[in-house]
């Protein structure tokens, strides 16, 4: 499946798994793909920055940094809940356990496609379609970004649209970046 992916696009896919792991998410979604684009660099990262998207702000949003405020607004005090749980079950009872580290690159490659959520699978499929429509025989980070934006239901595209990005404008920026590279 990943044979048409550039080295950077493959890095996005691998780093998306790492982003999901770091956030304690079981499946890899389009939001993890977007975060991984910053790690991989390339055209997608350049376009995201040009559109004013910041990795740390996006990561905080994906991590649910706003959840505490939302819960407070309905009368739930997370600090009080944590205190009560730790009183009952002991200190650190709510801390996430580190996922077991296994094998190296081979182990990761064999589990890549099985962890993708439906939105990420759709975005990867759309990135291939975008590449073909642009008459490219490879899938680069720019195609992944456009695939994420083209998927109407994925969290990554929704987050980017909330930041003012559109598919059409992003396509213009990608085309300009590709002209500058050539």
From TrEMBL:
The keyword Zinc does not apply. Residues 2-181 form the Clp R domain. InterPro entries: Clp_N_dom_sf, Clp_R_N, CLPT1/2. GO terms for molecular function: peptidase activity. Keywords: Hydrolase, Protease, Repeat. One of its GO terms (biological process) is proteolysis. This is Clp protease.
């Amino acid at each position: 499946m990943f044979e048409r992916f550039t080295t950077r696009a493959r890095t996005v896919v691998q780093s998306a798994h790492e982003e999901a792991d770091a956030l304690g998410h079981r499946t890899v979604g389009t939001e993890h793909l977007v975060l991984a684009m910053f790690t991989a660099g390339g055209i997608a990262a350049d376009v995201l920055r040009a559109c004013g998207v910041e990795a740390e702000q996006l990561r905080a949003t994906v991590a649910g940094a706003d959840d505490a405020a939302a819960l407070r607004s309905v009368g739930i005090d997370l600090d009080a809940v944590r205190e009560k749980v730790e009183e009952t079950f002991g200190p650190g009872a709510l801390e996430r356990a580190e996922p077991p580290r296994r094998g190296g690159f081979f182990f990761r490659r064999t589990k890549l496609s099985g962890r993708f959520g439906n939105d990420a699978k759709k975005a990867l499929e759309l990135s291939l379609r975008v590449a073909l429509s642009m008459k490219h025989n490879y899938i680069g980070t720019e195609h992944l970004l456009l695939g994420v934006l083209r998927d109407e239901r994925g969290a990554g595209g929704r987050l980017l649209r909330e930041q003012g990005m559109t598919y059409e404008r992003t396509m213009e920026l990608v085309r300009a970046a590709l002209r500058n590279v050539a």
